[in-house]
Structure formats: structure tokens, C-alpha cells
Write a structure and sequence with these properties.
Helix 2 packs antiparallel against helix 3. By secondary structure, the chain is mainly α. It is about 85% helix and about 0% strand. The protein has two domains: about 45 residues; about 55 residues, no CATH class.
Length: about 100
């Protein structure tokens, strides 16, 4: 941070307040959709539906991993591809078992 200058702190406060407002707005708009999702999960889901959820969660996780990794996609691709199938299998079976 810059010495004697509060601009970094003001920027951090602005980003934090914006994030809180954005999360609050998203929660307000998406809560009605959550009731339908709860109704679907109360019935239980089969392996086919769990496979779709597992694939979606795995892709989202690995996109996050690729964005925050130090070497980007070039240095990490062999590890991402190898572990993708392990994550996919475990997440699919856990989702089918839990829900």
C-alpha cells in the first residue's frame, strides 16, 4: 500500500461494498428459484441427473483452478486432464448418494 495515501483503503472498501451488494441482490433474485430446486432434491435424483450435476460442478471447479493457477493452462494441462476424471467420478457418485 502507498504510504500516507488512503486511496488503496478506499478502493478496497468500494470493492467490498460492491461485492456485498451484488451477493445480496443475487440472493434476493435467486431465492424463489431455490424453492424449485429443493422440491426436485426432495424427490431424490438418479445417477443420470447426478452425472449432469457432477459434470457441471467439475467443469466449474477446473475453470476456477485454471484461472488461479500460476502457470495458467500451459503448464497445468496434464494435471488438469488427469484429475478431471477422478473429480468427475467422485462428485457424481457423492451427489447421487447424498441426494
Amino acid at each position: 500500500m502507498a504510504t500516507g495515501n488512503g486511496s488503496d483503503l478506499k478502493l478496497f472498501a468500494l470493492i467490498a461494498v460492491s461485492a456485498v451488494v451484488l451477493v445480496g441482490l443475487a440472493a434476493f433474485l435467486l431465492l424463489p428459484l431455490g424453492q424449485e430446486a429443493v422440491a426436485v432434491f426432495n424427490q431424490g435424483i438418479g445417477l443420470k441427473t447426478a452425472t449432469l450435476w457432477g459434470f457441471g460442478v467439475t467443469v466449474a471447479l477446473f475453470l476456477l483452478f485454471a484461472m488461479v493457477s500460476g502457470d495458467s493452462l500451459i503448464g497445468e494441462v496434464q494435471f488438469l486432464l488427469g484429475s478431471f476424471f477422478g473429480f468427475f467420478l467422485i462428485l457424481t457418485l457423492l451427489i447421487a448418494w447424498i441426494f
